[in-house]
Automatic annotation (TrEMBL):
It comes from Flavobacterium arsenatis. This is Lipoprotein.
């Protein structure tokens, strides 16, 4: 039973997040946009599934905004606890595009949201789970989440921080990643962050970050496996010039 569960878990990872790209734009007034895109790596998925790879028959091309889902599921939403209604409302302007095309071999999920203050943008990685809970009338329980990341920007210093929410589930997840290391190495999976700021960058905490010519943007690319084992590696602090 455990082996089956682990295989399912790693399969879910391969389907949804072999390559993760995060794009953040911050304007002078603090407003902006954040986009997170996950892309399946077909080469690693094909090697993992073997002949079953060519038996896939799936096509989904769906786009929704969270506030529209709330309106559609209003009766269910109304019986949720106020704190969970507030949680969903926090993400109401988030737009989700899911494409699963087994014929073109394209599996991609794009989640984006505008913000007036990036401190309130929230962790987009949990949005689709919360929407699924609403649509299926499941109890929303944020404490089930293993981890959470957050943005903070005070006008001069930008931070991307990471926090473990459920240590037990996080430790189990790390054990799974350790077990399937050889498979995850196959596709050279990656995490890429592109951050754009209104002024020149004075300093950045991560030594692997590459600055643009005008020093207003940076790119940070890390192996996905490293981020899964130690998510704190994606912690970033950027100080802007006055």
């Amino acid at each position: 039973m455990r082996i089956k569960f682990l295989r399912t878990l790693i399969l879910m990872f391969l389907v949804s997040a072999c390559h993760l790209k995060e794009e953040v734009y911050i304007n002078e007034d603090g407003s902006g946009n954040v986009t997170a895109e996950s892309l399946r790596d077909e080469s690693i998925y094909m090697k993992y599934l073997g002949e079953d790879y060519f038996k896939e028959q799936e096509f989904v091309d769906s786009t929704y905004v969270v506030k529209d889902v709330i309106a559609k599921e209003q009766e269910t939403f109304d019986v949720f606890l106020e704190e969970y209604q507030a949680l969903l409302r926090k993400y109401e302007n988030v737009k989700v595009h899911i494409k699963k095309d087994s014929y073109a071999k394209e599996y991609r999920t794009t989640i984006s949201t505008p913000f007036k203050n990036i401190n309130d943008a929230g962790d987009l990685s949990h949005v689709t789970d919360y929407v699924d809970d609403l649509q299926n009338n499941y109890a929303i329980n944020p404490s089930r989440k293993r981890t959470i990341f957050a943005y903070n920007f005070d006008g001069t210093t930008f931070r991307r921080t990471f926090k473990v929410l459920n240590q037990e589930r996080y430790d189990e997840y790390k054990e799974t990643i350790e077990l399937y290391k050889p498979i995850l190495h196959i596709g050279n999976c990656s995490y890429t962050a592109n951050y754009h700021f209104p002024r020149k960058i004075k300093s950045v905490s991560h030594t692997d970050a590459i600055l643009s010519e005008d020093r207003k943007s940076l790119t940070l690319k890390l192996p996905m496996l490293d981020c899964l084992e130690k998510p704190e590696l994606a912690f970033l602090e950027v100080v802007l010039e006055d």
